[in-house]
Design brief:
By secondary structure, this protein is α+β, with helices and mostly antiparallel strands. Helices cover 52% and strands 22% of the residues. A hairpin with a 3-residue loop joins strand 5 and strand 6. The protein is elongated and about 80 Å long.
């Protein structure tokens, strides 16, 4: 009986060190579940006022614009912002394609009445929270870049129209 007790409770420094490593790793955010609750907690720590939309998404504002974080059960995270459109012209679609080509980590979806900018990723929670401000900057830059591309395309059309009018074609 005593030999069974000794076998079961024998101290091993190697096992103790491994247990300490596991405990330290569990304290790391990498082991936090990626869900709406952790996202809500993170946003509150960062000073945002966030509201859950459903079990997989939450809404918050940043610099006066609306953002949504959507988290799928398979740890697929989307950070999106959108706005309504008056006109979904072909020039806007071309500007969106140019923006996605030049800013590769942003997806732009143009629908009939709105445009959505999204950064999508499969990462650990620690990496997402570390890169969160960068993701926000990417979305802001993508919107500025798209606007610049669209403005250039419209000004080129206006220039060509003015040339055509001066030459008497129109």
């Amino acid at each position: 009986m005593i030999s069974n007790y000794d076998e079961k409770y024998r101290f091993s420094s190697m096992e103790w060190r491994e247990e300490q490593k596991r405990k330290a790793a569990m304290a790391n955010d990498d082991y936090l579940p990626i869900n709406i609750d952790t996202a809500l907690s993170f946003l509150h720590k960062e000073g945002f006022v966030a509201e859950p939309i459903d079990n997989e998404a939450l809404f918050f504002k940043y610099q006066g614009e609306n953002y949504v974080i959507r988290i799928s059960p398979d740890n697929y995270i989307q950070l999106s912002k959108g706005f309504s459109l008056d006109d979904g012209s072909p020039k806007l679609l071309k500007a969106a394609m140019q923006t996605m080509t030049d800013i590769r980590c942003c997806k732009i979806v143009i629908m009939k009445d709105c445009m959505i900018f999204t950064v999508e990723t499969f990462v650990t929670w620690t990496i997402f929270t570390t890169c969160f401000n960068t993701y926000l900057e990417i979305l802001e830059e993508a919107q500025r870049y798209l606007y610049d591309c669209f403005t250039r395309a419209r000004s080129e059309d206006e220039r060509f129209l003015a040339q055509a009018q001066r030459s008497g074609i129109c």
